[in-house]
Amino acid sequence: MGSGISKKQTQTPAARTKKKGKKDGYLLKSVQEHEGAINAICISHDGNTIVTVSEDMTGRLWDTRTEECVGLLQGHKGYITSVCVSERYIFTSSADKTVRKWNLESGASIKIFVGHHSTVNRVICSGDLAFSSSYDKTVKCWHADTGECLRTFRGHRLSVMPLQLVSDSNRGAAFGADLENNDDILISGSVDGTAKSWGMNSNECLVTYKGHSSAVTCLAVDGKGKTLFTGSADTTIRSWDLLTGAPIKTLQGHQGTIIQLQVVNKLMYSCSADHSAKCWVVEFGDCTRTYKGHKHTIINLQFSDSLIFTCSGDKTLKVYESKSGTCKRTFSASGPVSCFVATKGRIYSGCQDGSLIILDATKLREDEDDIYHNVQENGIKKIYTPMIQEKKQISVEGPEVDGVRAPVDTSLPNPNDYEFDNLYLDMNGIIHPCCHPENKPAPKNEDEMMVAIFEYIDRIFSIVRPRKLLYMAIDGVAPRAKMNQQRSRRFRASKETKEKAEEMARIRSELMEKGALLPPEKEKTEHFDSNCITPGTEFMANLSICLRYYIADRLNNDPGWKNIKVILSDANVPGEGEHKIMDYIRKQRASPHHDPNTKHCLNGADADLIMLGLATHELHFTIIREEFKPNQKRPCEMCGQIGNDFLPHLPSLEIREGAIDRLVGIYKRVLPRCGGYLAKHGIVDLSRVQMILQELGYVEDEIFKKRQENEVQYRKRLKANKEREKRQKMRDAPLWTPSGQFSPHAITKTPSAIVSPRQEAYAMRKQAMSYSGSSTEAANKSAAANLRAMLVTPSPDANTSSSSTPNSNPASNKRKHEDEDEEPKDDIRLWEAGWKGRYYKNKFQLSEDDEGYDDFRKKVAHAYVEGLCWVLLYYYQGCPSWKWFYPYHYAPFASDFRDLASLPNSFEKGTQPFKPLEQLMGVFPAASGNFLPPTWRELMSHPESPIIDFYPLDFEIDLNGKKYAWQGVALLPFVDEKRLLGALSHVYPDLTELETKRNNRGKDRLFLRQGNPVFDFFVGLYEGGGIRESVEIVANLSGGMSGKVEPDDVPILPHNVLFTDPVYDDDHIFKADVLPEAVPPARVLKPEGYDRNAPYRPVTGMNPNRTSFAQIDGAGRRMLNFHGGEVFRFSTPRSHAPPFRSHSGPPQNYPRHGHPPHSRSILGTPPSSRDYNDPRRNNHYSQQVPRHNSGSYQGNRPTPWSQRLPSYRGPGPNQPQFSRNHSNNPSRDPRQHQDSRGYSAPARDDRRQSYPLSNYRYRP
């Protein structure tokens, strides 16, 4: 039975200890006891003993106190695959088809479990039971004391790998060997792509979890024992209902085989062959962190004390901070690390060279300072430059050392070779992503929210690195036209939340009445309510204060902020964030002190930014979103007619139907007759707009009919797809089931004895012969009914005949309901005659017979035109009126616009926006009243409130021809400003001092630090008790900035001030022209007159003259079909163009199968693609190769077979074939090809015949 040795006689080598601070300085001891790779490692329950098992067919015991080998497990006749430890015993599995039980203290072999017929892959133990999986496709349950095989679970089609035991959650521990009363569940995963659950009281499979397309490699169960997670070689993780087997979610993100899963509370950690580990939220399936840094498969993962430990085949172990994802420490090993265990400040790792390495895992929190110091010693620039060259685009991340992000010195030159003057941040494009991020859990409270916002700003600042100004604009109170859209969105969200809660309660109630076992309702945990991101709330006030302290900190401590000015426009300053930014730019460029060559960079997520940037006519204007796209051009004129935040779209214009292209086409046709552009400086010429709308009105009827035709075709395709899917499902159903006495019976019903079996068999044969393909559906229905009979016991009074009709079956009714057309009812029918009358009747409750019908249509059209004028002025001149809004829910038809030239194009002057709390009353539903003072809140819900009609609890959503509710129109009453302000006048005295401050209209704040040229001027504002009126800033000292400043009543930094933009007359027109002294930027796009004698290279970064081009190594060149350094391009001479080959084909830079290497020194060979300055490059192609694609693409591309191969694709005399049997292939012709230029090129072999056709890939 083998022997156990209590003490190892040989002495372990002396431990190698090195000074800490180097990469391998944490090595405490490396012991070489095993003679083969260590396959698994395990630690005892008391933490005093480590067990390692190896390829050398032995296991060893290690004392964690002395770190010495104290026992040898010897007896297996094959390599040991796994090990597990109970309180007193060790269990090992081996390739010798056995499982062994050992004494934990002495290492003596106690029992041998024999029964498997192939290698045993896994062994786990619990109480008096042990379980093992094997290549023989079975799982066995053993009595741990007697070694008797109690159960053999069969059902997998291929070898079984991982095992997971789920104990009864009510008892929390495993049972003993009394299997009849054991409610534990065993989960097994197999190479056949399935997992199965097994009960202890039978050999039958309980549930099969089927969905993976490749082997199931690992298993995990959540803490409640209700959800199963399976990892697979198909790179996905799937979650399942443990008891029913129903799939829940598919977690995608890894690019390689999933190696291990570990569930910790509400999070799950995974590691993969794609060299990364990930953190997932169990409930939602979202990936919140990715732990990178390894260069090979991560073989093992362990979570401990908020740290993630990983080991890899790249001979390293890494420790990550679980929340931030930063790498805290990297350990080096003597070979690829196959397993490890971390305990008591030590890491015991087993390597494939047989050594056990003991590492120091203490003081992990102190490593961050050492890494930052390392970055400063090596220099930021030295680390940063290779990253830029490798990325080929604008860098967006700071440098990392051992996975920890180092601080970036933003005072250094911009690594993107382009320096910006001003950076503008639309803060709502930062606040909202930080509120509900896509790649991590949402913040739980305001503290986490603030930190996320600060980190986001730091990241954008490190990318752009402005040198003069940072402008941070938060959305303030919006104009009334925008408030209506905000009101609709918030009321709709409140309605959907309420309906969802009611629906969930109804479903739970119905299920409980039916006796279903339901999970407990989700506990209400602390979460961040995004509704508070509205001017006037306490959160926005706190955000303003936090940002002021953040700015003060950065100005004092960050060298990149030293010489810049910072403007903070918080939520108390009226206006949308992007429009406050544009107002600043517009008013500054109208000042005589403005530098026309200022380089602007605007960060934000709104599509409006493109139009706003173009409207400024600043030549150096860049928009940064997900990636840099400098000087982007987008069509922006006339888009207001397609709909925006202020106006509904015209019924005949839908973006998905090409509305923009249609308008542009009409504009091109009409422009020659217009006599000029539609607008100048944002002021619309309505007579010219009339011509555009008339042209659109002529084709309105055609548009509606075409829309209906497309809709009908779409429904036909949808119905055909459903039918196709239905037929596909029916193929999996049984084609025929036996009938009569051999028909299926319910599980609980005992079948009766067979009478006249020969006669019954004859009847069944006749039934099968009468089966035809045309009756597939009927046969399937009959088969489904028979299968249901097997599962359901009929009631005593049930009719046993089969004469029930399909309509009596609830399942058939359900299918009938699903097949019904769920499209919303359309009462307007725009594609039929009379559509205009039906439209106004349904949308405006006005029929054609009513008095004033034509006048009302004209009134709606004029209001819409007024909105078009307002929108364009808003974009070019600033808000023309804070009070104006479009007073209807729907737009008129294009054919309704008449006599537009006589309409006025002006708005009421001197209007004022709502105050912040007044805006909250205008946009919030009653359900969000918690953000308002108590007495104000009562006005939203009290039955006697004079404005109770502004806050309906329920309202209609008109789908308006759309399919989904979120696309419909919320029919809410418009807020009457006079009634609202009149009701609020009675509750204004109830405001506290803090609420009164939150309700004020504020001013921008300007920050700078000592040393700035204008700093002394600001100091003078505070001397002598401070001035009481705003004064003009000295433009010569402020770098050309114009405006007025005054002391701040609550300064955060000494001498920061309140700032006001320059003031202009009400009739002032801001010119939308390029300033006279502006120097256009260098062209970055390829113009029509591009020099075609030189190869075109795309511009990377912001500098078109950049010379530090990215390059690729030999493997990358082979992947891109480069051949011996030659340029593989469309115009490559035939003798030099390499043949197409697959990834599995032989490399073409070194000999294989007798093929001689190609020398780059061959006469006539083009120079390397990297030798951009070599004069031979252009001469070679200009002399020998004509340009085939002179009109468009001039880069590298493969030559089609038809243009470069001779008629006989045989090898030339200097190019032997790769194929081993080429000498016997008579189809090959050794003749050479003579082209039209007299250039003789040897014909090439077709290497697709040298390798499997499935590997051949044509990569253009």
From TrEMBL:
<feature type="repeat" description="WD">
    <location>
        <begin position="31"/>
        <end position="72"/>
    </location>
</feature>
<dbReference type="InterPro" id="IPR041412">
    <property type="entry name" value="Xrn1_helical"/>
</dbReference>
<dbReference type="InterPro" id="IPR036322">
    <property type="entry name" value="WD40_repeat_dom_sf"/>
</dbReference>
<dbReference type="InterPro" id="IPR019775">
    <property type="entry name" value="WD40_repeat_CS"/>
</dbReference>
<feature type="repeat" description="WD">
    <location>
        <begin position="113"/>
        <end position="152"/>
    </location>
</feature>
<feature type="compositionally biased region" description="Polar residues">
    <location>
        <begin position="1"/>
        <end position="14"/>
    </location>
</feature>
<dbReference type="Pfam" id="PF00400">
    <property type="entry name" value="WD40"/>
</dbReference>
<keyword id="KW-0853">WD repeat</keyword>
<dbReference type="GO" id="GO:0000956">
    <property type="term" value="P:nuclear-transcribed mRNA catabolic process"/>
</dbReference>
<feature type="region of interest" description="Disordered">
    <location>
        <begin position="718"/>
        <end position="747"/>
    </location>
</feature>
<feature type="domain" description="Xrn1 N-terminal">
    <location>
        <begin position="408"/>
        <end position="627"/>
    </location>
</feature>
<feature type="repeat" description="WD">
    <location>
        <begin position="291"/>
        <end position="330"/>
    </location>
</feature>
<protein>
    <submittedName>
        <fullName>5'-3' exoribonuclease 2-like</fullName>
    </submittedName>
</protein>
<keyword id="KW-0677">Repeat</keyword>
<feature type="repeat" description="WD">
    <location>
        <begin position="209"/>
        <end position="250"/>
    </location>
</feature>
<keyword id="KW-0540">Nuclease</keyword>
<feature type="compositionally biased region" description="Low complexity">
    <location>
        <begin position="793"/>
        <end position="812"/>
    </location>
</feature>
<dbReference type="GO" id="GO:0003723">
    <property type="term" value="F:RNA binding"/>
</dbReference>
<keyword id="KW-0507">mRNA processing</keyword>
<feature type="compositionally biased region" description="Basic and acidic residues">
    <location>
        <begin position="718"/>
        <end position="732"/>
    </location>
</feature>
<feature type="repeat" description="WD">
    <location>
        <begin position="73"/>
        <end position="112"/>
    </location>
</feature>
<dbReference type="Pfam" id="PF17846">
    <property type="entry name" value="XRN_M"/>
</dbReference>
<dbReference type="GO" id="GO:0005634">
    <property type="term" value="C:nucleus"/>
</dbReference>
<feature type="domain" description="Xrn1 helical">
    <location>
        <begin position="638"/>
        <end position="1055"/>
    </location>
</feature>
<feature type="region of interest" description="Disordered">
    <location>
        <begin position="793"/>
        <end position="825"/>
    </location>
</feature>
<dbReference type="GO" id="GO:0004534">
    <property type="term" value="F:5'-3' RNA exonuclease activity"/>
</dbReference>
<keyword id="KW-0269">Exonuclease</keyword>
<feature type="compositionally biased region" description="Polar residues">
    <location>
        <begin position="1180"/>
        <end position="1205"/>
    </location>
</feature>
<dbReference type="InterPro" id="IPR027073">
    <property type="entry name" value="5_3_exoribonuclease"/>
</dbReference>
<feature type="region of interest" description="Disordered">
    <location>
        <begin position="1086"/>
        <end position="1105"/>
    </location>
</feature>
<keyword id="KW-0378">Hydrolase</keyword>
<feature type="region of interest" description="Disordered">
    <location>
        <begin position="1130"/>
        <end position="1260"/>
    </location>
</feature>
<dbReference type="GO" id="GO:0006397">
    <property type="term" value="P:mRNA processing"/>
</dbReference>
<dbReference type="InterPro" id="IPR001680">
    <property type="entry name" value="WD40_rpt"/>
</dbReference>
<comment type="similarity">
    <text>Belongs to the 5'-3' exonuclease family. XRN2/RAT1 subfamily.</text>
</comment>
<dbReference type="InterPro" id="IPR015943">
    <property type="entry name" value="WD40/YVTN_repeat-like_dom_sf"/>
</dbReference>
<feature type="region of interest" description="Disordered">
    <location>
        <begin position="1"/>
        <end position="23"/>
    </location>
</feature>
<dbReference type="Pfam" id="PF03159">
    <property type="entry name" value="XRN_N"/>
</dbReference>
<feature type="compositionally biased region" description="Polar residues">
    <location>
        <begin position="1215"/>
        <end position="1227"/>
    </location>
</feature>
<dbReference type="InterPro" id="IPR004859">
    <property type="entry name" value="Xrn1_N"/>
</dbReference>
